Amino acid sequence: MSRPLVIGLGKVDPELVTGVLGDGIDFAAEPTEADLAVAVGAIVRADALVDAAFLDRTPRMRVLARTGVGTDLVDLDAATARGIAAVVTPGSGTRAVAEGVLAHTLALVKRVAPLTALVSAGRWGERDSGGPIGDLDGATIGIIGYGRIGRRVGELAAAFGMRVLAYDPYAPPPAELACDDLDALVAASDVLTLHVPLTPENHHLVDAAFLARTKPGAVLINCGRGGLLDLDAALAALESGQLSGVGLDVFESEPPVHHPVFDHPSVSLTPHLMGLTRKATAATFADAAHGVVDVLAGRRPAAVANPEWDADSTAHRAS
Predict the structure, then answer these.
(1) Looking at the whole model, is its pTM more than 0.70?
(2) Which of 227, 181, 177, 187 is nearest to 211 (CA)?
(3) pLDDT tens-digit readout, 200-259
(4) Sign (positive/negative) of CA torsion 80, 83, 84, 86?
(5) Pairing of strands 5-9, 26-28
(6) Cα 205 from Cα 196, distance rounded (Å)
(7) What radius of gyration, in Å, describes the C-alpha atoms of the chain?
(8) Chain segment 174-197, per-residue pLDDT in tens
(9) Residue from 104, 225, 252, 290 carrying the catalytic annotation
(10) Shortest CA distance to 193 belongs to which of 119, 255, 106?
(11) How far is CA 27 from CA 31, 48, 103, 291, in A?
(12) Which residue is catalytic, options 123, 155, 254, 316?
């Protein structure tokens, strides 16, 4: 009897998953159509499209394990209808993403990129031309979305001496941090950071009207979901001085189509890598592989994006 096959969708280093999958499961990093036809599980990267048409090509699929929490490109309804578990790995990149938020914040508040260019070009005499660089100590950070990453951002920001405010109607922050009114948080924050899931209702949550309510000169960081931010509005806010900096690790489409905001000197950009440090990458792939093993063994995995899925439907699909 052949061993069950798990496939990689997107770039998956076999060394990061095969040790967890064990000797009883085969892994194909670059699956063929024949592999798709028999695969029972998949390790799914963020850029892999898993829609109904794809699932039609994987009739034996029982589990999709995302290396992260975003399921924007996974058709959860189609997966659930087919009895397929959609595993997510919510804890593995938490600390790495939070560090990324602070990295972008520091780079922008301290104007690292433009000052690097100034020194490189021999323009030392112009070092005061932009005015004093900013401080984190004593500044206010507004965290929109107080899940695992939002909480960790708050811890790191507090260590820098920042005042922390947080807004989340679904996971209420502690009373000493909570700001029940989003507009009040926006108006009070020197730094704003986005950590809410993307839904049809909050697409372009940060638009021209939102940015008009920000504290003049605020810094905006998005290491959450690209679709939360209207880039046209962000560029206009930078040009008017309403924002003094924008840091982006996520984009509405990835890789993104070039946008004029990318060329602004007060913008820092990273290619959706803040959650993929060495330590976090190993943990994310290991957690995804553990999820696959759990489902194939008939156990409920630690976290799924389709909570209505049940193990019995997956077991029936395997029969």
Answers:
(1) yes
(2) 187
(3) 999 999 999 999 999 999 999 999 999 999 999 999 999 999 999 999 999 999 899 999
(4) positive
(5) parallel
(6) 10
(7) 22
(8) 999 999 999 999 999 999 999 999
(9) 225
(10) 106
(11) 9, 17, 36, 15
(12) 254
Residue 272 a catalytic site member = yes
Residue 54, token pair as written in the block: 């794809």
What percent of the chain clears pLDDT 70, i.e. is strictly above it? 97
Tally of CB atoms within 10 A around 78 = 16
**118 by DSSP, 3-state: which?**
helix
Cα 194 to chain centroid, rounded: 10
Kindly state the tokens that stand for 193: 């950071």
Coil, strand or helix at 54: helix
Residue ranges of the alpha helices (H) in 110-181? 112-120, 148-159
254 in active site: yes
CB neighbours of 256 closer than 8 A, spacing ≥ 6?
226, 262
Torsion angles phi and psi, residue 252, rounded to 5: -65, -40
CA distance 277 to 253: 22
Please tell me the predicted confidence (pLDDT) of residue 314.
59
Does residue 239 carry a catalytic annotation?
A: no
Structural domains in the chain plus CATH codes: 5-91+278-318 (3.40.50.720), 94-269 (3.40.50.720)
Tokens linked to 191: 């730094």
Containing H/E element for 106?
A: helix 94-109
Please tell me which residue in 111, 151, 272, 290 is annotated as part of the active site.
272
